[in-house]
Amino acid sequence: MRISLRVILVLFTLFSLAATGCASFDEWQRNAIFQTGAASSRFSLDSVPPEVEAFDLHHANGDKVHAWYYPAEEKGAPTVLFLHGARRNLPGSLARIEHWHALGFSVLAIDYRGFGRSTALLPSEDTAIADASLAVAELKRREPDAGKRFLYGYSLGGALAIAMAAEHDGFTGVVVESSFTSIADLVRQSKWGWVPGLPLLVTQGFDSAERIRKVNEPLLFIHGTLDSVVPHTMSDELLKDAVAVRPEYKHVLKIEGGRHWGFSLAGETYDHAVRDFARTATEAAILGAGVSATGAVNASAHGAQGAP
C-alpha cells in the first residue's frame, strides 16, 4: 500500500511528540476536552438562585470543588447528582438544573476544578473523576437512602456519571445524556480519524464503553438524532455494552431532530421518559426485581435544536 507524504509527515510529528513524553500534547488534549475558557467567558458566576445553597467541598490537599444544592419542594423527594458538560459551569447549567428540580428532584451539582468558583487548574480525567467522587460522598451524606439517589450526566458529564456508577455503589438509577463511548472513538470519527494510530495517542481516555460493563444500576441513555458533536449511535453502543453484562432496566431514548444542546428543555417527551425511568428504577430498588426491560424509543420534540 502506497502511503502519501502527508500521512508520513503527520505520523512522524505525532509519534515524535509521543516519544518525547508528550507533556504539551497532553495539555493540548486537556484544553480541548475541558473547555474552561469557553465556560468562564460565556456565563456569569453570579447567577445563583436564592433557593440554592452554594458551598465548597474540599480535597485533602486543600483544593475546593464548588457545589450547589437545590432542595426539592416535596419532602422525601429523590436527589440527583448533576454533572455538567465541558463547555458549561454551574451558572451555565442553570436551565438544566432548574428543569431537573421541576421534575421533582433535589439537585446536587458541582463545578469540576478548573470551572467556576472551584480551584483553578487545568483539569484532567483523573481530577474530574476525583471531583465527582467527592460529590458522590456528599450525595450520600445528604441522601442516606440509597433508594433515592440518582446520577445524571450531560455530554462529558455523562462519562463521569458512568465512571461514578462503575466505581461506587448505592444509586437507584443513572441517566446519561448526549454522551460518548470514549474519547478515542470520537477521534476516530473526527476529520483526523483517517490518521493511523492517532487514537493511541489519546491521554484522556474516558472509556465509558469499558466502564459501563461494571454498572449494575438501571440506565437511561438520551440522545438527539441530529447531534453533530457526539453521534447518537454511541448511545446505542453504550446500551449494547451495558445489556451484555446485565439486561435489566436499560433503555435508550432517541429524540428525533434533537441536537447536542438544549433539546431536553423542549416538550414533554424528555420529562415523561425521566419520570417513568425514575419510577421504574425506584420500584426495582424497593422490590429487588430483575425484570428485563431493555429497548429503544424514538420520539419527536418540538424546538429540539436549542442553543449551544
Tally of discrete structural domains: 1
Major β-sheet profile: 9 strands, mixed
Written as H for each helix and E for each strand, in order along the chain, the element string is HHHEEEHEHEHEHHEHEHE
Task: Give me the oligomer status.
Answer: single chain
Main CATH class: Alpha Beta
Determine the CATH topology: Rossmann fold
Question: What average pLDDT do the residues reach?
Answer: 84
* Secondary-structure-derived class: alpha/beta
Low-confidence parts, pLDDT < 50 over ≥5 residues? 1-13, 289-298, 300-308
Strand order of the largest sheet: 1-2-4-3-5-6-7-8-9
Q: Which shape, going by the Cα principal axes?
A: globular
Any idea what the radius of gyration is?
19 Å
Number of beta-strand segments? 9
Could you tell me how far the N terminus lies from the C terminus, measured between alpha carbons in angstroms?
43 Å
Number of helices: 10
Share of helix among residues? 25-40%
Proper CATH architecture: 3-Layer(aba) Sandwich
Beta-strand content bin: 15-25%
CATH superfamily: Alpha/Beta hydrolase fold, catalytic domain
